[in-house]
Amino acid sequence: MATPSDPSNQEGVVRRRKNGPPFKFLVPLIYAPVLPLIRLSLRHNPVLRDRLFTAVLAGAFAHGFYLVTDIYDIESK
C-alpha cells in the first residue's frame, strides 16, 4: 500500500523549472581568464607561477571531466 507522501501516487504534481543559468557550465568563464593572469602577474616568481598554473589547469580538467561524466550518466538512464 502506498503512503500519502509517495510522489508516484500523487496526480497533478507540478514541478517548478529552474529558470536561472546553469552555473556549472559558466565556471569556465571564471577560470579561463585566470590562467593568463597567473602567467602575467607572477612572472617574477616562476616556482609559484608554475605550481598555481598547474593546479588551476588540473581543476579545470577535473571540472570538465565531471561535466562529461555527468552527461553520460544522464544519457545512460
From TrEMBL:
<keyword id="KW-1133">Transmembrane helix</keyword>
<feature type="transmembrane region" description="Helical">
    <location>
        <begin position="52"/>
        <end position="72"/>
    </location>
</feature>
<keyword id="KW-0812">Transmembrane</keyword>
<feature type="transmembrane region" description="Helical">
    <location>
        <begin position="23"/>
        <end position="40"/>
    </location>
</feature>
<protein>
    <submittedName>
        <fullName>Uncharacterized protein</fullName>
    </submittedName>
</protein>
<feature type="compositionally biased region" description="Polar residues">
    <location>
        <begin position="1"/>
        <end position="11"/>
    </location>
</feature>
<keyword id="KW-0472">Membrane</keyword>
<feature type="region of interest" description="Disordered">
    <location>
        <begin position="1"/>
        <end position="20"/>
    </location>
</feature>
